Amino acid sequence: MAMHLSQKILFFAMGVLTLASATTPAPISVSEELTFGKNVVHNNLGGVGPDGGEPTLVMANVTTTADGKLVDMIITASRNYVGNPRRNGVKGGVFGVINMISGISSDFHFALVDAETGDPVVMEKFYLTFFDLDAGRRKSRESVTLSNFASYWVPKYTELEIEERKDGTSFTASKKGVGSDNPKSPQTLNKLQMSRSVTVAYEDRSDFDVTYTVGGNGNARNLLFAGWSNLVEHSEPVVPKNATPRTTGAPCTSGCEPIKIKITVSCGGEPCNNATNATVTTAEKSSLLGRSRRHVNVTPHLSAPRNS
Questions:
Q1: What is the pLDDT, as a whole number, of residue 131?
Q2: Helix or strand holding residue 292 (H, E)
Q3: What angle do CA 63, 109, 138 make, to 5 degrees?
Q4: Potential cystine with 98: which of 34, 223, 225, 301 (Cβ 3.0-4.6 Å)?
């Protein structure tokens, strides 16, 4: 949004922008990292235990907000979820894990919330990686379907079958795997491990949904996930056709107080006849960028271009 505005401003010698503040659920986090090696403070995903109370899996301190507040991740499952609850939580000190029996498909909702207040926390950008998507005994192959993400990374030699649909993009295993080829760290995936993993990037979101499917009638499987992985370094980002366009937040419909910012455009001391040479004053550009990141609507009210 900020870049789009600056490009428009180049066509004007001077103008005024009116920024209407929008209400957001919580401060935007500046961290792109999610870590899942911390404590699991509640384990009752789908209401199958071992804890009582809310039917959720709560992972503490997965990231922090710009002002230092801790953020938890709360995972809920659809009613048809069945798995071994004692295997849910954290694996190897670095992966989040959800165990599920084969022969079913279940929807999971992941939500980032303020650890103290429980309010949603919107993050500008964060990565999530799903690992070890392979097939086991009796055709129990794994598949994840994701939606509302901005881009994804898989290597050119991926083993995953990728299908883009209106309701999301699915990544399905095509090869059989064994326990000895499972990853040990998100940052040190080898070629085989990368071929069975996918990293996605979400932007301006506080939650997302994952459909996990395990076919066949074999053993239960573990859905492994973490944040950033070295897949990002070894492959190119792909923007799916159903990607969600990045926005600067929900429109402000009431209680909005306009903030006027004067934007001065300079053309090296000369009249701005050639818009391609125009530049926005640095200090005012920084002010505009800082405000526009905080989920605002931007309505330009600019004067006509100066041609002399």
A1: 96
A2: helix 282-292
A3: 110
A4: 223
